Amino acid sequence: QVQLVESGGGLVQPGGSLRLSCTASGSIFSINAMGWYRQAPGKQRELVALSRPGGISNYAASVKGRFTISRDSAKNTVYLQMNSLKFEDTAVYFCNAEGVRQAGSWKSNDYWGQGTQVTVSS
Questions:
Q1: Cα-based distances in Å from 16 to 33, 59, 63, 67, 83
Q2: Residue closest to 59 by CA, chosen among 71, 47, 70
Q3: Are strands 116-120 and 10-12 parallel, antiparallel or unpaired?
Q4: How far apart are CA 114 and CA 122, in angstroms?
Q5: Mean pLDDT in the chain?
Q6: Digit-coded pLDDT (tens) for 66-112
Q7: Residues near 41 by Cβ (< 8 Å), separated by ≥ 6?
Q8: Which sign does the torsion angle of CA 27, 52, 94, 6 carry?
Q9: What pLDDT is recorded for position 110?
Q10: The sheet that has 77-82: what strands, in order across it?
Q11: Mean pLDDT for the stretch of residues 22-29
Q12: Residue 65: its pLDDT value, please?
């Protein structure tokens, strides 16, 4: 069974920084894309940043220039460096792995992490 484990959330003051990490495990052969989503109270889950094959990254307009996604494919790990954090960045951040193929299988599936809380508060 594939599992995604996130870490790095916490409480930070406005203008501060946090780095989130997410590692996928479970006899993984390949992963197509890995990304971060977030969900604030009373709001829908939204894409924050996505690391796609070929080194392509996509960002939500609200985080562009402040957040940076990076990926270590050998470790099945994705990172999200968050700088200049704002109150409105407060949310539960979820890691997503898209198109995961396990060893010995032609099927691919998508998986979610359990979420990590990021709170920006003074």
A1: 28, 19, 14, 12, 6
A2: 47
A3: parallel
A4: 26
A5: 96
A6: 999 999 999 999 999 999 999 999 999 999 999 999 998 899 999 99
A7: none
A8: positive
A9: 97
A10: 3-7, 18-25, 77-82, 67-72
A11: 95
A12: 97
Q: Tell me: the pLDDT tens digits for 41-79?
A: 999 999 999 999 999 999 999 999 999 999 999 999 999
Listed residue (16, 25, 4) closest to 118, CA to CA: 16
Q: What is the number of other CB atoms lying within 10 angstroms of the CB of residue 101?
A: 17
What is the pLDDT, as a whole number, of residue 23?
Answer: 98
Q: Which residue has tokens 């299988």?
A: 105
Neighbours of 52 (CB within 10 A): 15
Q: For the residues 18-29, what does the mean pLDDT come to?
A: 96
Beta bridge partners of 34: 51, 97
Spatial contact of 1 and 26, defined as CB atoms under 8 Å apart: yes
Look up tokens 């992963």; give the residue.
Answer: 31
